[in-house]
Amino acid sequence: MQITFISYFLASIIAYLGLLLGVILIKLAPEEQKPGKKYFILLKKILFFIIIISILFFYKLNIVLITILIIFVLILILNKKINLENSIRVYFFLGIVFYLSSKIFNLFVIESALIFLFGIPTSSLIIKLKKKNYYEIFVKNLWFFVPAILLYFIL
Asked: d(Cα 75, Cα 81) in Å, to the nearest integer?
């Protein structure tokens, strides 16, 4: 199934709106932000790991290579070598993953949903209700669209 630009662009916006849902979640239950921090961090790591695994699985690389890459990424995440705290870099990477997933329709649906889900704990950890740092959450993470849109037109 061929993905048109309009459906690709709308899917990227919906995937990005996971950040909005995280903000809404914390605005509805601000008292849960501090006790839920360790769970949000764990959820981010798990979702990031699943995003990486799913793209490797669908591109059907050699099983030995996939296993080595999965173990390597898992070790990096557990040893905190992959810094998921810098959401700008992570969302830039997710934009690349988003584009790569658009070549396989089933993967595209999965990755779009996973990126949406990844945005919930990301914005829940970043938001500070007293400072109202919405700019930091929404505008700085717009780097997601740079590779997603540019790669669509270039490649």
From this structure: 8
